[in-house]
Design brief:
Blueprint (H helix, E strand, L loop, with lengths): L1 H16 L22 H6 L14 E5 L6 E5 L6 E2 L6 E4 L6 E2 L4 E4 L2
Antiparallel strand pairs: 1-2, 1-6, 3-4, 4-5
Length: about 110
């Protein structure tokens, strides 16, 4: 076993001296942020599946009509036009992502 250890030591020494296998000394940079404790802004801007705790970007919200003051619950990423049930006024229009609320309507995110 002693001879085998000698052989492996010599082999490793010759490999480390080979030109093409030399390790380059790259300058190491300090990390930009803490991966375990990310900031709120960093978590919010990252993709929903790449966050520390996976959370969706969508939510339900209560929208208050500007003319009749009736409250309707709508989805933040709705794909159709939402109309008030009381006065048939358009509350929101789809944009491909989040809905665009009509002028004068107010909303509250449901928790």
């Amino acid at each position: 076993t002693f001879e085998n250890e000698d052989f492996f030591l010599q082999r490793n020494k010759s490999i480390s001296q080979h030109k093409s296998l030399k390790v380059q000394n790259f300058p190491y940079k300090k990390m930009q942020g803490d991966l375990v404790n990310p900031t709120f802004e960093n978590e919010r801007s990252s993709h929903k599946l790449k966050r520390l705790v996976q959370t969706p970007n969508s939510y339900f919200m209560d929208v208050k009509c500007s003319s009749c003051n009736q409250i309707s619950t709508i989805f933040s990423h709705a794909q159709s036009v939402i109309v008030c049930e009381g006065c048939n006024q358009v509350l929101s229009r789809p944009t491909g992502g989040k809905v665009k609320l009509s002028v004068g309507t107010s909303y509250r995110v449901k928790a």
